[in-house]
Amino acid sequence: TPAIVWFRSDLRLHDNTALAAAARQGPVIAVFLRCLPHWQRHGHGANKLDFWSRGVAALGESLAGLGIPLLHRDIDDFSEAPATLLAIARETGAGALHFNLEYPLDEQRRDRDVIAAFQEAGMAATGHHDAVAFAPGELLTGKGDYYGVFTPFAKAWHRQLSAERLALHDAPAPQAPLDIAADPLPALPELDDTPIDGRIWPAGEGPAADRLERFLRFRGRHYQRQRDFPAIRGTSELSPYLALGMISHRQCLQAVLAENDGALAEGDAGLTAWVSELVWREFYRHVAVGFPRVCRHRAFQQHTEALAWRDDEAGFAAWCEGRTGYPLVDAAMRQLVATGWMHNRLRMVTAMFLTKHLLIDWRRGEAFFLRHLVDGEFCANNGGWQWAASTGTDAAPYFRIFNPTTQSTRFDPDGTFLAEWLPALAELPKKARHAPASDLLGGVDYPAPIVDHRAARARALEAFKALKTD
Ligand code: FAD
């Protein structure tokens, strides 16, 4: 009897734990449940949904090459998943279900309900840990708690890592044709926003593998030196592919091992710094499971719930539209809206600007990012926002507030990135681009800063000092 593999954010044939497990048992039927209303209610925007849709199409083609049909169903809510999957199992005569686990709270609940429904129907359903080296709960502090700080988590991760945890799963061999036809994949309906040009982010395993190879060949060893400069393409730009599983962390780490004499924690400084980012990715997944309040829009640091965030619609709109008068913030926000991606240094700068300079609730920024990011992923996005807002794990101490002008002179010294996204400023001398003086601006159409750095900083410090920490 065939087994069903339910694909979600693991859109690949290679090194896919659930797919490999199912293929070991016999023929495979693939299923994708598109849950657009639910994903939209949870804030995923057009860019991510479009990338997801193209990723499913690419997966369908690769599966067809192996004789595996991909069935497609639209559901309105996660609660429909158990019945829909059971119906497919009955229609196709499948005897088992396999899928790779997802870690945000709603996804965990959905998966538990699916497993329970299959058990009740007398069928096996297995959720596999695939997107992490350690299942959440496997790495705990000496007291048996989940880690709430990155560095000890990363140390434990490296210490306990074994070769088996990174062993790659083979893609399944071609199978004899089943008497089940693949479904035609429906186009994405019209959404509130128009997705960006899909050529910026070609979907599928092939483009993901190419990116990894090019990154490691040309930039990996320079990563530590280049990663903070947004004008340089110094990072891998693999985040959308990792978020939807068009490539696995194991494939990335195996490629590093091959380049770095079999080591992850030592050796080339660029490669080891890159590995550390993949550990951050895993850390935030453990945090989502260990501290489920973060999945309920709550702060990790509970005392910060009392913070007096400001209502400032005009400030929020200026931030969203990239017209705060702080060029680095504005250029970054324009990069986000135009490309669906923002450089990590700038995610930190813009998130801190919103939460500290404007003292606007991090949840609003988190939602705006998710609406635009092609790599929008709950755990990393929430972790990043709470870090910047000083409400999260490893919280940046609230008094360390980035000065957006200093960040600009340090990380875009020639104003190259600024000129790319704010063409008006390209007319100015390089050094003048970071904080354009009003007399220099003359006819140039660029706004004056909407807040004064010092005054805004003082206001944020005041708000944080007012919190009781006990
Ligand atoms: P690289 O530098 O090449 O890193 C390799 C991979 O490691 C990334 O693709 C990503 O999967 C992972 N990674 C890197 N940095 C982090 C990090 N700080 N936390 C978790 N994982 C990391 N990343 C997302 O994938 N989705 C998000 O929605 C997201 N939102 C963020 C919001 C804020 C406010 C901040 C500060 C960071 C956010 N990040 C998010 C993390 C990081 O900015 C991006 O992963 C990174 O910029 C993606 O570019 P890259 O693939 O070139 O990264």
TrEMBL record:
Its cofactor is FAD; (6R)-5,10-methylene-5,6,7,8-tetrahydrofolate. Pfam families: DNA_photolyase, FAD_binding_7. It comes from the Bacteria. It is an enzyme of class 4 (lyase). Residues 1-133 form the Photolyase/cryptochrome alpha/beta domain. Keywords: Chromophore, FAD, Flavoprotein, Lyase. InterPro entries: Crypto/Photolyase_FAD-like_sf (IPR036134), Crypto/Photolyase_N_sf (IPR036155), Cryptochr/Photolyase_FAD-bd (IPR005101), Cryptochrome/DNA_photolyase_1 (IPR002081), DNA_photolyase_1_CS_C (IPR018394), DNA_photolyase_N (IPR006050), Rossmann-like_a/b/a_fold (IPR014729). Its EC number is 4.1.99.3. One of its GO terms (molecular function) is deoxyribodipyrimidine photo-lyase activity. PROSITE patterns: DNA_PHOTOLYASES_1_1, PHR_CRY_ALPHA_BETA. Belongs to the DNA photolyase class-1 family. Belongs to the DNA photolyase family. This is Deoxyribodipyrimidine photo-lyase.
